[in-house]
Structure formats: structure tokens, C-alpha cells
Predict the structure of Enoyl-CoA hydratase.
Amino acid sequence: MDPGAPVTAVRVGVDKDTGVAVVTLDRPDRLNSVDLAMVRELRDVWRRLRFDDSVRAVVLTGAGERAFCTGIDRDAVVPQPDSPYMADDPLLGIGPKSNDLWKPVVAAVRGMACGGAFYLLGECDFLVADTTATFFDPHTTYGMVSAYESVLMAQLMPHGEAARTALMGTAERLSARRAHTIGLVTELTEPGGALAAATAAAGVIAGCPTEAVQGTVRALWAAKQASLAQGFAQAPHLIALGNLPPGGQAELFRARQREYRLR
């Protein structure tokens, strides 16, 4: 990796001895929400990691204590084609698999992971979290269809849990302990311990023969790729039919309740 590469919203550190790269979403003042600059940087990072043979495993995490990622930045302006048949979703291309990276990626989650964060979590190979982690999907609260997020959540947790998380909106959050119980999280640590635990697991994987590891990652992804493709094919139509106009969404966002139940 070129240490002088122009990366600002995403930090990359590589340990040449262990073969592990740590990719950090670095907008803690915005709860690591994704703006268009971060979209471009994530795509560039994943593509550069494909060609760095010193990196054999990756850890993805968020800066700060409050959030792993809170999805799209609400202040981001996403230009859209003037056609009912075309819609641009910038988050569709931010994950490692979407950028043809077949090196294993372990997520280290601290704080909130919600909404568009599932575009990233859904393309990680497994999740490690500390006890401060919470998971939720605010879409329905704000009059938006949870389409891509729901498809990805359905790959990560039992159907009922994915449905409840998607449908309850901001009224409820999935606790780290519940996430561990249902298998969304594979290892639970004390506060602040997720990054170290995820890095340790990635180090073990990086020590295995590279071709065998990457082939296994590809096989695991193939097991769910068909259902993802079918779900994603429906998503644009469901969003077009079910989303409130932007003004209605903004009104619901302003009127939102801050209280929530932790489950």
C-alpha cells in the first residue's frame, strides 16, 4: 500500500509481519457515516488491497467510541438520473466483495451499526463486537423501504430477527449480547476489545496458505450470492413504490423520537 495515497475519510494500516490490514472508517464526528468522498475512497482501498500481496486478511472498523458506521450521511447530495427506470445508490459499491476482493474481511464493531452499515457488514466474512455495539435499521421510521439492507440482514441473522430489526425502525436496537446469541456476532468482547480480537482472528487466517483461504472465502460467498442477486433485483422497484418523497422523509426525521428499547 502507498502510505502517501490520498485517503482522508478512510485510514489504512498494514502490519507486514502478520499480513493484516486494518481499514478504519474515519469520520467519528459524523458517526462514521458515508459521504460521497468515503464511497470513492472505500472503492479505491478495496481495489488497491487486491494487488497488495503482503496483505492476506483485513479488519474493518470505525473510528471513535460511538459508532462503527451509521450509513449514508444525510447531508450527502446524490445526483439521480431523471428517469423512473434508473436510480443511483452509492452504497452498493462500497463493500469488499463488490470490488472483487476475495481476501477475508473481519468486522470489528463498537457502538452503533445501523442502516447503510449493513452494506459493509453484509460483505464482511464475520463480525466481532464489544458490548457497546448496537444494531438497528431506521428506514421504516423515516418512511423509507429497507430493501438492500433487509436482503443483507437476512443473510446475517435468522429471518425473524432480520424482519424485526428492519420493521421496528428506530424504536428498538439489537444489543451486542442478543446479536451474539443469534449468530450475527461471532465473538463478544469487553468495551474497546473488538479491534484486538478481530485483528487476532485475522492474524490466524493470514497465517494459512493464501490460495486456500481466498478459495474458501469465494465458496462461502457463492453459497449466498444467488439469493442476494434475486433480492437486489427487486430492491429498486420496492424503493420506488414505497419511499415517501424526500420532503416527507425529512419531516419524519425532524419529528423522530430519541427513546428506544434495547433488546
